[in-house]
Amino acid sequence: MRRLRTALLDLAHATLRDGREHTREFDTFDLGLQVRADDGHETYLAVRITGSGSVPSNLTVLILRNVPGCEAEGWYPEYALPERDLLPAEQAWSNLMDPRAAAQVLDEDWQPGIRQSRLEPRCRGCL
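RESULT FIELD:
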């Protein structure tokens, strides 16, 4: 679980910096995050999960409950990603990201792979 949470924070940090999809490979699935935001408007975050039949059945729930800054009940299934259609064995979900959490993830002291103690715990399924 720690590896998954660290990956989610690293991916969130990377996509918040450049708006592109960033991915991480695990043993039985690939995970990708992409943020879309305009100044003064909502910040949307998309999660992409790609895997074979050996992906644990509760994996999607575990991932979505641990994405920084997103309400666990706010996820919506998507049929495409911002710049492309979904591939076979791929699923995507989107949610609004809390701007305060986005600012914390973008903290200048952030180091990939290291969970900073200054990152405040989130409510309802947040880290």
